[in-house]
Specification:
Strand order of the largest sheet: 4-3-2-1-5-6-7
Distance between the termini: 59 Å
Low-confidence stretches: none
Largest sheet: 7 strands, parallel
Mean pLDDT: 94
Helix content: 40-55%
Strand content: 5-15%
Number of helices: 16
Structural class: alpha/beta
Number of strands: 11
Shape: globular
Length: 394
Amino acid sequence: MIQRVCILGATGSVGASTLDVIALHPERFEVFALTAQQRVDELVQLCRRWRPRYAVLGSESQALAARTQLRDAGVRTEVLYGAQALCDVAAHPEVDSVMAAIVGAAGLAPCLAAARAGKRLMLANKEALVVGGGLFMETVRQGGATLLPIDSEHSAIFQCLPDDRRQWAERIDHIVLTASGGPFRARDPATLHSVTPEEAVAHPNWVMGRKISVDSATMMNKALEVIEARWLFELPPERIRVVLHPQSIIHSMVVCRDASVLAQLGTPDMKVPIAVGLAHPQRMASGASRLDFLSLSALSFEAVDPRRFPGLALAYDALGAAEGSTAVLNAANEVAVAAFLDRRIRFTDIHHLNADTVAAVLPARDEVSAIEGLLALDARARAWAAAAVERMSA
């Protein structure tokens, strides 16, 4: 049967790679819905190519512009807009699979809608678990959804484990998430205050959006992945470790109770974990280049330098604090990265803003049991962080 796919965040790098993989298998997949926040022209071009049933944009004016262009092109895609429309297409009865590639906390509500509707949910949105945590996993269980991690690190762990989740606890001693170290792995920590946005987004191995590229440079992406792994694999934080692996060939490892180490290797290309998610439990061509072992000069590993990457420790601190603290950390980081990219704060201010926000914004007990509370907590944290940015940039 053809699998109908909804891609949340179709104009981003993960969305584009998902469409590349789907294009290799037209007999297996149909693009049912595509969404974008504000890239009207790019979404229109995708609709002209893929002819989805639905397209979703952020605002009414953007939707009107897209409708006009598609009507003139003879494309009959129905264009919707707004947060509720994202949830509606993610939970649509005719959708089989949802690629959740919206960056940030904005992706939480449609991820929950897809989980509640029992979809195959391919999770490329770290924040759904970082913000949603236990609420998100409980929704997955209650909805009977199939949750498949798309981050290369979490996909690697998933591929090393048996399909039966009941065997995970007895098999795993701990897991090791690998990190490339980004563009500043060897940079003198004393010079990081002068990093420019252009330097921060120049990742040596991966082609990614600006926000996640900055997160890689600060290693906040790994901090968020530690939090995500805690929920995905039901592990306490002390059994989740991080090492630097500059080549980005080993994507992560499972250390078993018998001291065996299982690792997933491959070229640094997001099409691989995307193909794993789309085809699971089968395998299919991804379009990624194959790993040539004879061309590898070395596979090296290093400890994480806390002077260069102080943000990683915040993940463990937030996991040990009141429930909801990880949502505060995520909100602060989104505000901080946006301010850095706008040249309003320094690169090193990102960490200080994140740490100060987590210390200042304390979650209330009633804010973590429903999405409304989590979004209110997210808004409180953003407001505090935004005020802090104003003070820093004054």
